[in-house]
Amino acid sequence: MKKFVQSDRSLIKFPSPGDLISLLGGFFYFFKALSYAQSLFSTLDEGNYLYKGLLFATDVYKPFQPYGPSTGSMPLSFLIPGWVQMLFGPGIRTGRYFAVALGIIMLAALWSTTKRFSNSWWAAFVVWAIALNPFLEKIYSQVFSEGLVATMLALVLALSLGKKRSLWQITAASFIASLIVLTRQNLFPIVPFLVLYCFWEHEKKAGIIALSVAAITLIGFHIYYYPEILLIWLKILPGFIAKPFSSLIFDPDATRTWQTQTQILGRLLSFWDGIRLHFLAISGTIFSWIFWPRKNDWKDQSKFRSAVFLTALFATLFIMHTWASIFRNYCVFCFPNYLTFFNEIGIILFVLTASNLSGKISAIKQTIAVIILMLITTGIGFSTYQDVGKALLQIQIPRVRELAIQPGTTELWRLLSNKFNLSFKTLEYGIPAAFGVSAGIFIFAVGIILRLIWKKQRKKLGIGTASFLLLIGLGMFLTPTMLLGDRPSRNECTGNLIPVYESVGTYLNNQIPPGSKVWWWSSSGPVPLLYLEDIRIFPPQLNNRFNYFIDGDSQRLYEHGYWNEELALKWLHETDFALIEGKDFYGDVVEWINPDLFDELLPSKIIHECETGAYYRIFRRKR
Predict the structure, then answer these.
(1) Which of 18, 169, 354, 436 has the most C-beta neighbours closer than 10 Å?
(2) Which residues are within 8 A (CB) of 169 and not within 5 positions of it... i.e. 6 or more apart?
C-alpha cells in the first residue's frame, strides 16, 4: 500500500517556485489591468477603433469606402474590435475586457517561450517585467492596436522560436504574423524576418510553408481591398519611393487645422521618454548587444539563431519607429507608444543572452558598458523633468554665503541660479539630468564593490557587466515608480467609469430616436455613439479636428473622409440632432448652433470629474 501511495504521488507534478511566482505575476497583471480598464476615460483613438470597427463589422460602411469613415490604419485594427463587439455586444465594457484578456494571453505566450529557452525563474522575470510596468498596462488595457499587435507578436514567438517546432505551429505563426501586418502596416518587417528565420532554423520545408502562408494571406487581403489599400503603404514609404505614385494620393489643397512643429528639445524628450518607459526592454537589448556571447559560447545553437532573429527584428523596428516619430512631424510624442508594439522582443532577447553569458568579457566591452550606462541614466534623468524634476528643483538646502552656512534654507534651483547665473528653464532640464549622472556614478561605484566581492569568490564578472546587471536589477525594482514606468497618463481617473459610459449611452439613446441623423462634435472619441440604435452619422466628424481643413473642395474632402466649415454647416442643416461634448462647445461651434433652429435638451450626466466638460449637450432640431 505504501508503495502504491508513493507511486501515485510521483504522478502529480507540482508547480516549481518559479512557476508559482509567474502565476502570481499573472494575477498581479490581471487586477492592475482590470483597474486601469475601469478607471481610464476613453480617448479619440480608442473610441474610433471601437465605433468604426462596429460600423465596418456590421457592414454599415466598408473600409476605404468613399464618403465613409477615414481608414488611416490597416482594416483589421478596426475590424477585430468590431467583430468582438458583434459577439459580446457593443460598448466600452466589451472592448476593455477584451483588451485585458489579450494581455493575459500575451503573458502566457511570453512565459511559455521564455521557459522553453531557459527556466522557470527567467520566465517569471519576463512576466513581472511586463506586470510591473504601469505604462504598458495602461496601454494594453485600452482598445488600441498596440495591445492587439503585442499579443499576436507574443503568439508568433511562442509558436516559431526554438527547435522542434511542428509544421502546424509554423503555419499558425506565419498566419498570425500576416495578421499583424494587416492590423498595423508599420510592423511589416516581422513577416520577412520570420520567413528567413524559418528557413534558417526549421529548414527548407518549414520556410516554404511560412513563405506560402504569409504570401497567400497578405496578397489575398490586398486583392480584396485593392486598390485603396495601397494608399496605406504610400503614406509610410520614403518620399523617393512614393513619388512615382503621388497621383494616387489625395491632395486636399487646403490648410489642415491640426499641425505640429516640435523643436529639437521636444524630440530629445520624446526619445528619452521612450527609453525610460521601456527601460527593461531597451537596457536589456543594449546589454545583449554589448555582451553578446561568442558563437561557440552559446549552450545551444538554436538559441543563438533565435537571438540573431530577435536582435535583427528589434533593431529594424526600433530604427523604423524612431525615424517615423522622432525625425518626422506626424506624431513626435507617439514614440513611447510605438515601442509598446514590440517591447517584449527586447525582454526575451535579454533573457536569451544573459542565460548564455559565459567566458571573460574584454576590457573594451566593459568600458563601453560603463559609458552607455552613464548615458542611459543621464538621459532618463533628463526625461523625468516633468514628473519628478520639479520636486528636485524645490529641494530645501541650507543657505550658504562665502562658504559659511547661514540660518534658514532655500530651494536648490534658486541657490544654483544665484551662484551660477543660470535661468530657471536651464535648471529645469539640467538638475534632473545631473541627478541621472549621479545615479550612474553611484551604480558604477556599487558595481566596483560587487566586482571585488565576486572576485574573491572566483567568479568571472567584470565591472561593466556587474554595473549593467545592477542597473537592470534596479530598473526592475523602480519600474512601478514615477522614475521609470509610472508616468501619469493624460486620461487617468478614479473609480469604475464603464457603468457611467453605459448610463450616458442609455440616456442619449432614450433622447434620440432610431433613424435620426446625428451631428457629432467631440474630441474624446465616439464611445457614446456605440449605445445609440440605428443612427446615421457624418463619418468625417469621427476624427474631430484631426481631418478638418480650412477651405478646400468640400465634395472632394468629403469623398476622402475629410471635412471643413462648409460641410459642417451643411450637415447641421440636414441633421436631426447635434451632440456636442461640453468641453468642446466653444469658438465656431457656438455660432454654428442656431437657437432659432435647435432646442437644447437636458445634458447627459458627467462621465468623470478628471477633466472639465466631460458630458454631452443635446440639441434637437425644432419641429
Answers:
(1) 436
(2) 159, 160
**CA R_g for the chain:** 27
Helix (H) or strand (E) holding 518: strand 517-521
Give dist(CA 380, CA 478) in Å, integer: 12
Classify residue 615 by burial, with Cβ atoms within 10 Å: 0-12, 13-18, 19+. middle
Query: What pTM, to 2 d.p., does this model score?
Result: 0.92
Cell output for 202? 526549421
What is the CATH class of 498-621? alpha beta
Q: What is the pLDDT of residues 146-198, one digit of tens each?
A: 999 999 999 999 999 988 899 999 999 999 999 999 999 999 999 999 999 99
Domain boundaries along the sequence of the chain: 18-266, 369-478, 498-621
Nearest CA among 306, 305, 339 for reference residue 322: 339
Phi/psi-derived region of residue 83, left when phi > 0, alpha when psi is between -120 and 50, beta in every other case: alpha
Q: What is the 3-state secondary structure (H, E, C) of 256-294?
A: ECCCCCCCHHHHHHHHHHHHHHCHHHHHHHHHHHHCCCC
467 touches 443 (CB < 8 A): yes
Q: Cα(383)–Cα(373) distance, rounded to whole angstroms?
A: 15
